[in-house]
Amino acid sequence: MLFLKIIFIIIFILIMEVIMIKQKDWVDMRNLLASGLTKTEIAKQLGVSRKTVFNNLKKNSTPIYSRKKTIRQKIESFKECMNLRLEKYNLTATKLYKEIQNQGYLGKYGMVARYVSFVKDSLASKAVLRFETLPGEQAQVDWGHFGKFYDRETKQTISLYCFLIILGFSRTLYVEFFSKADIFNLAGNPRL
C-alpha cells in the first residue's frame, strides 16, 4: 500500500512538472528573481516546484501554449454513412452502432450515441411547412377505445369508445363517447 502511495506521489509530481505555467507566472518569476528571492522561495510563493522555476527561468521568452495535433477519431470515416441513414430513417444510436460495427467500426457506443444525438438535433431544427386548409375544407376523424366499464344501471360491463373530430383550419376539437364504435351511433346522433 505504501508503495502505491509513493508511485502516486511521483506520478503527481511528474504531471505537475509537465503542466504549462501561465505567462503571468513566468513574468512574476523573473520579477521575484530580480528582487533578490531565491529560486526555492519563488517556488514556494507561486505554489510550483523548484524544477518548474528552474526550467522556466532558463527560457528567454514567455511560454506559448499550442494545442497538440488532434487525433483523427475512429468515427470520422463512418459519419457520411450515418448521416445518410439518419436523413432517410429515424434510427436509434444502438441500431446505427450495430450497422457500422458490421462495416468495421472499432470505436465505442458512446461516441456513436453523442454523434447521433447531435445529428438528430440539427435535423429536428429544420423548418417544416405546415399543411393549411380553408375553413370547412378538411377534418380528421378517429375512434378510440377507452376500455371496459361496469354500468350500475344496466348491471352490465360495457366498452367505452370515443369519437373524435379535429377541424383542419381552426384545430377545433369535438369529442363524444359511445358504447359502440359504429356508423349507426353516428347516424342517430342529431349533434353531428
Structure, briefly:
A hairpin with a 5-residue loop joins strand 2 and strand 3. The protein is of the alpha+beta class. 45% of the residues lie in helices and 16% in strands.
List keywords for this structure.
192 residues; alpha+beta; 3 domains; three-stranded antiparallel sheet; 8 helices; 16% strand; Transposase orfA for insertion sequence element
Structure commentary:
This protein is α+β, with helices and mostly antiparallel strands and 192 residues long. The protein has 3 domains: 9-58, no CATH class; 76-124; 139-187, no CATH class. Helix content is 45%, strand content 16%. The chain contains 8 helices and 3 strands. Strands 1-2-3 form a 3-stranded antiparallel sheet, with no helix packed on it. Strand 1 (139-151) and strand 2 (156-167) form a beta hairpin.
Mean pLDDT: 80
Helical residues, percent? 40-55%
Number of DSSP helices?
8
Counting helices, strands and paired strands, the structural category is alpha+beta
Strand order of the largest sheet: 1-2-3
Number of strands: 3
What is the H/E order?
A: HHHHHHHEEEH
The outline comes out as: elongated
Strand content bin: 15-25%
Low-confidence stretches: none
Largest sheet: 3 strands, antiparallel
Q: In angstroms, what separates the terminal alpha carbons?
A: 83 Å
- Counting structural domains, the number is 3
Radius of gyration: 36 Å
Please give the structural blueprint.
Blueprint: H1 2-18, H2 23-34, H3 39-46, H4 50-58, H5 79-88, H6 93-102, H7 109-124, E1 139-151, E2 156-167, E3 173-178, H8 183-187
Antiparallel strand pairs: 1-2, 2-3
